[in-house]
Design a protein that fits this description.
Elements lengths: L2 H13 L4 H20 L2 H4 L2 H6 L3 E10 L5 E12 L5 E7 L5 H17 L5 E7 L8 H15 L8 E4 L6 H15 L19 H19 L8 E4 L4 H12 L3 E7 L2 E4 L6 H10 L6 H5 L4 E4 L14 E3 L9 H9 L4 E3 L8 H9 L3 E3 L1 H4 L2 H15 L5 H25 L6 H19 L4
The structure holds NADPH dihydro-nicotinamide-adenine-dinucleotide phosphate (NDP).
The site of NADPH dihydro-nicotinamide-adenine-dinucleotide phosphate (NDP) has 27 residues, from helix 9 and strand 7.
């Protein structure tokens, strides 16, 4: 690692103890950016890395709410406004019991680079709560969201910070959050994305992250005179990203044979029937195990150890679309031994550092999440553009823009990797291409 990058990484770990996910994300980024710092010693004088890894602002707050039995509950709320060099802070809200400052900071840091890669004017931020939506009634979810927004609305705005969904925050939650923002601020503006179509949302936003993942993977395959046709594909998760990745992969000719949730995974050798999955996950909000009860020949495997078992299934292409660190070295070795040729991440940092390196060493094509899942936030930026114009674009218009953005991202990260002599290393390509634009903007704006 470049000596400047190494010094800043050591400081970062000392100044931010007990934040392992934040350290992990920073380590991967710093390793990738080492050749950039070798080439640009002037960045050190600007303390660019120190500034880049220190959030502009961190807001932490109490979220009190009342459950259906009248008990008062308290959760932690977070919003990390990481970097606004190229546009308003933009990034999702995550509601999951595992949420803490380390996780929100790792996601925020990655978000800066991802948003830069989209080519659109959006800075990086992330937020959420350790609230667990599982098993809560609609009314409890609504009361929680209203309390969360009562504080958050003081810190966000259509030109300041525009949150969206993430794990545990889908259309229902965005609706309750937006309703409360509008009620308190008396403004119907594009302050959240992923909104419903009746109140300012964009067509194709729901599908965007999963579709974008399939588009960028397809572009890589096309450049190698290949396609999804006839390929066996394993997708982890069964949430928003996984469902729409599955839909587009199937449309492009791939055969998806597995999906999962945090309790286990399903294997259907005939190919997943997505309408059954949508009914279970989007309508009934039930467990993925139900699939095996409804589809003949499908298997369900209990797997509470972070859904690792799904990676033992033989496949050509793997799309981890559940959560961070779900694919470790052991799983990577299994995938490689079983002949997997492409890993493209739908989730944020689903692959551990050693597993990523194992894929790169084995010449498995590896498309990192910050590039491969950027379609979600890109389409959120398209939603912001439509809100500002007070216009709506058709599904086809948004989908076409999304497709073009993903194709551009692929070629930009490919070129950045080549420019620095790391052909085919898309991790380096994504980090370098994303960083250079933000770095230039930060330098142009002076010390701030
Ligand atoms: P959802 O909440 O819709 O779905 C998450 C899925 O992952 C669920 O199936 C969930 O299962 C599963 N999951 C969560 N935690 C674990 C775990 N510890 N082990 C195994 N499975 C788990 O979230 P999204 O689909 O929106 O997000 C998935 C990933 O994609 C996240 O990393 C997110 O940050 C990233 N992402 C999302 C974007 C978006 O637009 N939504 C944009 C870019 C990235 P269960 O129901 O059992 O919890």
């Amino acid at each position: 690692m470049n000596s400047y990058a190494e010094r800043v990484l050591t400081q970062l770990k000392q100044k931010n103890p007990n934040e392992p996910e934040f350290h992990q994300a920073a380590t991967e980024i710093f390793e990738s950016l080492s050749p950039v710092f070798d080439k640009h010693p002037e960045f050190e004088k600007q303390a660019l890395l120190e500034r880049f890894t220190e959030p502009e602002r961190v807001v932490m707050f109490r979220v009190p709410w009342v459950d259906d039995n009248g008990n008062v509950k308290v959760n932690k709320g977070y919003r990390v406004q990481f970097n606004s060099a190229i546009g308003p802070y933009k990034g999702g809200l995550r509601f999951h019991p595992s949420v803490n400052l380390s996780i929100i900071k790792f996601l925020g840091l990655e978000q800066i680079l991802k948003n830069s890669l989209t080519g659109l004017p959006i800075g990086g931020g992330k937020g959420g709560s350790d609230f667990d939506p599982k098993g809560k009634s609609d009314n409890e979810i609504m009361r929680f969201c209203q309390s969360f927004m009562t504080e958050l609305c003081k810190h966000i705005g259509a030109d300041t910070d525009v949150p969206a969904g993430d794990i545990g925050v889908g259309g229902r939650e965005i609706g309750y959050l937006f309703g409360q923002y509008k009620r308190i601020r008396n403004e119907h503006v594009g302050v959240l994305t992923g909104r419903g179509l009746t109140y300012g949302g964009s067509l194709a936003r729901k599908e965007a992250t999963g579709y974008g993942l399939a588009y960028i993977t397809d572009e890589f395959l096309k450049c190698n005179k290949d396609s999804y046709k006839g390929k066996t594909v394993v997708i982890s998760g069964s949430g928003n990203v996984a469902i729409y990745a599955c839909e587009k992969v199937q449309a492009l000719g791939g055969k998806v044979v597995a999906l999962s949730d945090s309790n286990g995974y399903i294997y259907d050798k005939n190919g997943i029937q997505l309408d059954v999955v949508k009914q279970i996950k989007e309508v009934e909000r039930a467990r993925i195990k139900e699939y095996a009860n409804r589809v003949k020949g499908a298997e369900y495997h209990e797997d509470t150890n972070g859904s690792k078992g799904i990676w033992s299934i033989k496949c050509d292409i793997a799309h981890p679309c559940a959560t961070q660190n779900e694919l470790n070295l052991e799983s990577a070795k299994l995938l490689i031994a079983n002949g997997c040729k492409v890993v493209a991440e739908g989730a944020n940092m689903p692959t551990t550092l050693d597993a990523t390196n194992a894929f790169l060493d084995a010449k498995v094509t590896f498309l990192p999440g910050k590039a491969a899942n950027a379609g979600g936030v890109a389409t959120s930026a398209l939603e912001m553009a439509q809100s500002s114009q007070r216009l709506f674009w058709t599904f086809e218009e948004v989908d076409k823009k999304l497709h073009d953005i993903m194709v551009n991202i692929f070629h930009n990260i490919k070129k950045a990797a080549e420019d620095y002599g790391f052909d085919g290393n898309y991790v380096m390509g994504a980090n370098i291409a994303g960083f250079m634009k933000v770095a230039q903007a930060m330098i142009d704006m002076g010390v701030c």
